[in-house]
């Protein structure tokens, strides 16, 4: 199973004058699920959040460089957040993780947040 999201935008407006306050943008996101042996007990789930940007509106005195509240710095990375979640011994044994007794693990998760 593979799902991809190109771009999703949402504008949060003020209740009194309906002017935009913030804009939320999610782009280049992917989610996948792989069953290793065909059984649900041995599955790997991966996701990648390309960018999740929160920015203030351009209807004020805020400088353009200060409008982005959360999001990737242009050119710094391709993903804001990525992660893996594994269930089952067959999947966990395939990962190279130091300091982990894989014989005692039935689930494993790994997350990476971009600076």
Structure description:
The chain is mainly beta and 115 residues long. It is 4% helix and 51% strand. The chain has 1 helix and 6 strands, in the order βββββαβ. Strands 1, 2, 3, 4, 5 and 6 form a 6-stranded antiparallel beta sheet that branches. A hairpin with a 7-residue loop joins strand 2 and strand 3.
Quick overview of this protein structure:
It is built from one helix and six strands, in the order E-E-E-E-E-H-E.
Sheet with most strands = 6 strands, antiparallel
Tell me, rounded to a whole number, the average pLDDT: 83
Give a count of the beta strands, DSSP E runs of length 2 or more.
Answer: 6
Tell me, briefly, the overall form.
elongated
Strand content: over 45%
Structural class, please? mainly beta
Uncertain stretches of 5 or more adjacent residues = none
SSE arrangement, N to C: EEEEEHE
Distance between the termini: 29 Å
Helix percentage? under 10%
Radius of gyration: 19 Å
């Amino acid at each position: 199973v593979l799902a991809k999201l190109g771009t999703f935008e949402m504008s949060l407006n003020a209740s009194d004058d309906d002017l935009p306050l913030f804009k939320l943008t999610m782009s280049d996101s992917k989610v996948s699920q792989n069953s290793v042996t065909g059984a649900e007990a041995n599955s790997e789930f991966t996701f990648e959040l390309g960018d999740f940007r929160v920015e203030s509106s351009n209807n004020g005195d805020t400088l353009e460089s200060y409008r982005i509240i959360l999001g990737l710095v242009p050119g710094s990375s391709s993903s804001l957040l990525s992660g893996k979640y594994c269930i089952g011994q067959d999947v966990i044994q395939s990962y190279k993780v130091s300091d982990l007794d894989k014989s005692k693990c039935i689930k494993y998760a790994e997350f990476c947040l971009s600076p």
